[in-house]
Write a structure and sequence with these properties.
heterodimer; A: 298 residues; mainly alpha; MetI-like fold; B: 299 residues; transmembrane (chain A)
Chain lengths: 298, 299
Amino acid sequence: MTDTIAPPAVAPVTEPPRRNRRSYRVGRGSRGWMITRTALLLVGAVLTLFPFYAMVVLSFKPTGPVTFPDSLLPWPFSTEAYDQVIGAKSVLRWMWNTVVYSVVSVVGVLLFASMAGYAFAKKRFPGKEAMFWSFLAMLMVPYHVTMIPTFIIISELGGVDTYWGMIVPTLANAQAVFLMRQFIASLPDSLFEAARLDGCSEWRVYVSIVLPLIKPILATLGVFVFLWHWNDFLWPLIVGQSLDMRTLTTGIASLQQENVALNMLLAGSVVAFVPIFMAYLIGQRHFQEGVSTTGIKG
Amino acid sequence: MVALPATRRRRVRRPSAREAGTALLFVLPFLLLFAIFRFGPATAGVVLGFTDYTIGGETGWVGLENFHRLVDDPTFWSALRVTVVFTVLSVPLSMLASLGMALLTRRAFRGAKLFRSVFFLPVVTSLVLAGVIFIWVFSDGGPWSRAMGALGLPAQSWLADSVLVIPALVLVSVWSRFGYGMLILLARLQDVPAELEEAALTDGASAWQRFRYVTLPQLRPALFFVAVIETTVAVQVFDMIYVMTGGGPVRASYSLVYLLYDQGFKYFDLGYASAIGVALFVMTIVVALIQRLTLGREE
């Protein structure tokens, strides 16, 4: 998981706005072009989807030699690999670890980043600019430079092979604060002033005014933080060393190194892929608009 | 995105101590996390490069010794070469695919959204999972070697060949990344004023001319942004190499981050690993400067 710089402002991917409508003739072109375009896109889609197809089909094969192209047929069909990988291997345990790592991190990142983002956007306090610029400067430092001292700190504190050791360092996500600050800054001050005049405490303003207003950015950011953690590899590899503390990614990589049969590896991969795929199907808009509007790294 | 002066202008009064206090309380949790797990480690990461820190052992100041060792280490140079070759191949290829697919799915037609969603799917897929399936794709007698054989190209397992292993990894990286650049470019394409292209069309510009002289200049900032992000990703390549080749055959795909991981977390030579981290940092800065001076020069 790496922080990235916020991009130049870009508009969301939407269907072309109305003002473009009359200009369709520019892009529409000839019938020949439309056929070429469809053909190229279909080739692209087949090449993109083929690995997913192979992953699913080969995971439902009985253990044995895999041949090409015969093995790409859906039969012989067997759930043997799933039985083994779920029964004999620790895949369910890894799934649980991944869920804890992802979900707790999402909640933590969203909470701390929205609190800090609110203060940076709407409050004045000493040291504000110095803090902000130090956040920005740190985005330049590659994650791998900070990873080693972070590991030393966690290991000195006894956090190796624990959930908190895995989760807590990832909560220092400066990119999340930037996005929150940017979003909250665009909200009119009057919204907060009114509540304050009514005698609401600052915490109350944050909980009942700020949080409901920033739902869109919470959803977008939440989706990406979840994705980063679900797919994260290097940090869980370092800090979750025992068999029981692996995540799905590090667990499957370890199965691969034990030379487990291909169908089992792929069954594990499917198990790891299904939740993110479901999330993608449901929250597609958040994924795609998140990239388009914020440039957040996928 | 840096809009601090605006806030200052709007409110003239100084913050009261109470207001500043509550604001600090809101920042405090993040600030602590940031200081302990980001700011501190970033500084320490550089400092550690000048020590011989090992877990549980005595730590001493060794000056430039780690860096001398790095310069004399053929593994470092080979890892640097692997990283550079991988980056130089994968970034342009992936951007080319992004640009192509962005242009193809640019207009609203039936299925355009579906294609975009399909092309973005690999971006949300873990490189570990991708790696597992691509091991099979590139295996001897697998789909890739058959396809290459049919085209009269080298038909052996690309992952087992010390020259072809990098192109194979580049292909996986392009597959996994192009959807991201595509979305960034699409967002920018929607903003290109239609009048510009219409004017060019009225002037009788060919499709290529319209692309070259109207669309491409408009895309420049977005292309620069994608180039920066993709370079960062490529320079730090690790996950898929770890899974697919383990750095092999014979270090032919052993990247800088892999070297850092091995030195730090297999041999626990954290001082030396930090020196490699510093080298990576320097490399990032140099690449960023080069990109700013070339691609980003108009900004």
